[in-house]
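Narrative summary of target 7.
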Amino acid sequence: MKSQELYTRAVKVMPGGVNSPVRAFKSAGLTPPFIKKGSKSHIWDEDGKEYIDYVLSWGPLILGHAHPEVVSVIKKQAELGTSFGACTELEVLMAEKIREALPSIEVVRMVNSGTEATMSAIRLARGYTGRNIIVKFAGCYHGHSDSLLIKAGSGALTFGSPDSAGVTQDTARDTIVSNYNDIDMIRDVFEKHPGDIAAAIVEPVAGNMGTVPPKPEFLQELRSLTKSHGALLIFDEVITGFRVGYEGAQGLYNIVPDITTLGKIIGGGLPVGAYGGKEEIMRRVSPDGPVYQAGTLSGNPLAMAAGYTTLSILSKNLDIYSKLNKKAERLCLELKDIMDKAGIPVTINRVGSMMTLFFTNSKVYDYASAATSDTACYNIFFKKMLQAGIYLPPSQFETFFVSTAHTDEDIEKTLNIAEDVTKNLSF
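Modeled conformation, tokenized:
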């Protein structure tokens, strides 16, 4: 098997044989398939096995794999040059496109990843406010920068502690971890640290403990608290931006953040990130202001071409989102029905074309309730679905995605396979 051979070679030259931990399939105890190609809603591994793909490169491919218009502009731009380390018209077009879509963004800076975007947004918030403390929420992931790889402290309202080797305790001391969707706790945090909090950063729809929507009043209260305490509100829309709607989660929930971070879809499948917000705040970024941030490949023309084309397609066809919602809704409702008939306890959360199947009886509204999921059951389900040609996230605590390329036939086949899997398994 070629995937097995490649993995054997990979572990000799890369940590865990991968360039991102989730690809290792460790939670499922499997050798990861090595993917050779993708088209529309399908991918093929190096052994020629075909899968219906619900990972979609972890969300960017809202139009599916190898969309012809996106591929075409990448080819055309590559022939003109792949990188210049200089200004291009494409950067301007992209910035204008983002500003038109998201009213909260008046000025935007392109970077190379979601991690870069959130790291830079945090630095900017501290530079703008002159304060040090950042508030984040348990279960929300904002990339792997030191100040955001922080887990909750030993007690409520305590400063966090490092969640990774190599992150210093001093770094962790500047981050407080509150509970997602817990209004009382976040109020207490702000009350106990008056004048010290630079910003609160949140996934408006959590996507990294599985899909967990906000309670409507949670985001409203967070907006009110940050404003009244002179802190900034940062929406991490790396996943949700242009995914849950053309105006992102901030449009869906009618909340105006001070800074927004973006990634994934705005690169059209190529590496990308961005952060933007009110002009007064963004003008603090170098070379306009004292908050330094730079990047050799920031705004590179290949990613700008792919991303601009993707956003243009979405903006010209806004009914895409209602169609995506219908596909995702059908998948969720019928999966739930299949599980109920098989006597398997599940909770399915969905926001737009994002969804997660939690193997638990409990409602999932925060990190603690997500953690009640039976990961062993999920792993069995994942393995059997993968064997049958359905490519799902290898971890219980990740998000499924639907693209415009998924057909009714894809969904029907997925449901039929899920029904067969649940009939023939004892969970």
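The radius of gyration is 21 Å.
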